[in-house]
Design a protein that fits this description.
The chain is α+β, with helices and mostly antiparallel strands. The protein has one domain: 2-Layer Sandwich (Alpha-Beta Plaits), CATH 3.30.70. Helices cover about 35% and strands about 35% of the residues. Strand 2 and strand 3 form a beta hairpin. It is elongated. The two termini are about 30 Å apart. The mean pLDDT is about 85. Bound molecules: copper (II) ion. Copper (II) ion binds next to loops.
């Protein structure tokens, strides 16, 4: 019985998600940003995505840098959010990854 118990615990440990979330920072290339009033529009669309922590938008670089919890959302969702707001985007670079201490 001891062996079976150990096997169950091992299975649970292997299938459960990690006890910490990773915050990822990505830069999206954003289309259709032509003036400064586009910035809050893009920023708002990204901020409304669940799990998004920070958004920085540059109209000059035509980019949006987004920090998000990778357990709550993903790049596809971010791209969808700006695209739905009228600003199609794509992943430009994945800058860094930070893990919160347990
Ligand atoms: Cu504009």
């Amino acid at each position: 019985m001891k062996f079976i118990k150990a096997a169950i615990i091992a299975t649970l440990a292997a299938t459960s998600v990690p006890a910490f979330a990773a915050v990822r920072t990505v830069t999206l290339g954003v289309d259709n940003m032509t003036c400064v009033t586009c910035v809050p529009m893009v920023k708002k669309s990204l901020s409304q995505v669940r799990g998004v922590k920070r958004v920085a938008v540059s109209v000059e670089a035509k980019t949006a840098t987004v920090a998000y919890d990778d357990k709550a959302t993903n790049v596809a969702e971010l791209v969808k959010a700006t695209t739905n707001a009228g600003y199609p985007s794509r992943l430009k670079s994945a800058a860094s990854e930070q893990r919160r201490p347990r």
